[in-house]
Amino acid sequence: MNITICLVAYAQKFTETESFESLVKLSDAIKKKLNIIVFDNGAIDYSEIELPPFFHSFTYLYNPNPMERGTRIAYETSLALSKDEWLMLLDDDTLLTENYLLALFSELEDKEREGDIVAYCAKIYDGTVQISPTASETLDMLLYPREAGVYQQDISGISSTLTLNKSFLEKIGGFTTEFPLDYLDHWIFSKIILSHKKVKVLQCKLSHKLSVQDLSSLSEERFHSIFSSEYRFYKAYKPDLLCQLKRKYVKMILKGLLKRDSGIRWKYLIKLMLQVKKTNPRLREEFHRFD
Predict the structure, then answer these.
(1) What is the pLDDT of residues 31-79, one digit of tens each?
(2) Per-residue pLDDT tens for 263-286?
(3) How far apart are CA 150 and CA 130, in angstroms?
(4) pTM across the whole model
(5) DSSP string of 157-185, one letter each residue
(6) Which run of H or E residues covers position 8?
(7) Which residue ranges does the record assign to the Glycosyltransferase 2-like domain (predicted)?
(8) What is the CA radius of gyration of the chain?
């Protein structure tokens, strides 16, 4: 059995990313089972670079589309090109390990594998903090990390190293255009749960640098993308948590006003809430609680 891995690259040259470096360090036996697709959203086309040997296949794709340069288009393109039963999503700042791939192939090649499991993931850490997978029925996700096991509810996480069943993805229509970048990972987990399918968390630990934890490091554009996507996700898929989300924004606005966190673009959060008032009269009464 082979799997396809979609490695999404951005500003950094893909051969210099942590994920690429971890891929080339894998044993030849594992490499022969991997079809790698590098989807590059960066400013420079590296098509002329010599691609590494020993993989079952290695494809480099440069994205010239100025309108969409996120993860969705990378995942969707890889899904269309893949001939394998399983597709792994991979960010460029995740350290993939031989142990995780050995455990993953052991699960996928098990003839008694549970058919309702359509996704596999590792426990992912940023330093000493497990950032994925976590509970999904709370805004305080990081306080409730998920242990190894099979889940069919109350689970979410980041998309990096998440391995998904191709047939399942095709049945749900592929990756939604609602979330071109941010919150696409949460959407994937929510679709698995809504489809009454399961996620299996493997007893493997991987390292990942989660840049969004440091708001001061985010550009204006990325900050706007994260919080507008967050609001749209909870409004559409977890409306029970919407009031909590609004309270969170109010606290962030106050924190930004008092300069306790220079990374908070509090003016944008106010604008976001005001735009919701104008465009969704049904929510107006709820927003009055914070006026």
Answers:
(1) 999 999 999 999 999 999 999 999 999 999 999 998 899 999 999 999 9
(2) 788 888 988 887 755 444 433 333
(3) 18
(4) 0.90
(5) --STT-EEEHHHHHHTTSS-TT-SSTTHH
(6) strand 3-9
(7) 17-171
(8) 20
